[in-house]
Specification:
Blueprint: H1 2-28, E1 30-33, E2 40-43, H2 47-53, H3 56-86, H4 94-106, H5 109-119, H6 125-132, H7 147-172, H8 176-184, H9 189-200, H10 202-217, H11 221-227, H12 238-248, H13 252-281
Antiparallel strand pairs: 1-2
Family: Belongs to the binding-protein-dependent transport system permease family.
Protein name: Sugar ABC transporter permease
Subcellular location: Cell membrane
Length: 282
């Protein structure tokens, strides 16, 4: 009976996850020769891996992806935690504030990207506000030094509200008796946060950290819609690089190789996160 209930889920995972990934791994071991219907694939071993990992542009993409996640993951989680703590206190219109922060999560990322693309244009409303207060207009998405930060802004616009909901749920599960005991010991709000809230939130924080890491490693839509990986490849991440190699450059084997490398790097980081935080989260 249990097997019958689990069968649809197992078959779905096999069809949309495991089998395609095995196919991608097999594709990384081949190279395509020829064009279109006349193209043939021959076994090439680890040639695709050697070519990619020795390519300075791919090395820069790998480093940029790691840097992007090193910055955006702590930033999103820290802001989500601060907002979650504030919105579990007795503040006026608490439910309204929660809804306002969560609303961006209900908008498809395509729609959010379009809205931010308009807002960050050279003649857009954000530059209009800057000029109105006497500050110079900024290039944002058209600047190699500002484009990546602009992508982080777009991703965080959606991500912070989403992770806030999980952290609010975790905070609501903390027994009030712990805060009362801390108060009797003379602990203020800051001390209660470090001694009660944060230790009791380690399980939800572990989930949010891992899920946020995966989400940002495979982030694709803002790069595709707003920058095309530019300017000067400043917003090209591993996920976008895999897409571009496959569909723009017609190099599906190298695209599959980039995807496998992305998956391996992501799994290593997630494994390290579990090892560092799992024991404390028990």
């Amino acid at each position: 009976m249990v097997a019958a209930f689990l069968a649809p889920a197992v078959v779905t995972i096999l069809l949309i996850r495991i089998i395609p990934f095995i196919g991608a791994v097999i594709s990384t071991l081949h190279v395509r020769e020829g064009v279109g219907l006349l193209a043939e694939e021959r076994f090439a071993g680890f040639q695709n891996y050697i070519e990619l990992l020795s390519d300075p542009l791919f090395q820069a993409t790998l480093g940029r992806t790691l840097l992007f996640n090193l910055i955006i993951n702590p930033l999103q989680i820290a802001l989500a935690l601060v907002i979650a703590v504030l919105l579990t206190r007795r503040v006026p219109a608490r439910g309204l504030w929660r809804m306002a922060v969560f609303i961006p999560c209900t908008i498809p990322l395509v729609g959010s990207s379009i809205a931010w693309g308009v807002a960050l244009r050279a003649d857009g409303p954000i530059n209009g506000i800057l000029q109105a207060v006497g500050l110079p207009a900024q290039p944002f998405l058209s600047s190699p030094t500002q484009a990546l930060a602009s992508i982080m802004l777009v991703a965080s616009w959606v991500g912070i509200g989403y992770w806030m909901i999980f952290l609010i749920a975790g905070i609501n599960e903390i027994p009030d008796e712990l805060y009362e005991a801390a108060s009797l010991d003379g602990a203020g709000a800051w001390r209660s946060f470090w001694s009660v809230t944060l230790p009791m939130l380690k399980r939800p924080l572990l989930f949010v950290l891992v899920a946020d890491t995966v989400a940002n490693f495979v982030l694709f839509v803002p790069m595709q819609m707003l920058t095309g990986g530019g300017p000067q490849n400043s917003t090209t991440m591993l996920m976008f690089d895999a897409y571009r190699r496959t569909y723009t450059y017609s190099q599906p084997n190298q695209g599959a190789t980039a995807t496998v490398i992305l998956t391996v790097v992501m799994l290593i980081i997630v494994f390290v996160q579990f090892r560092l935080l799992k024991e404390d989260a028990r």
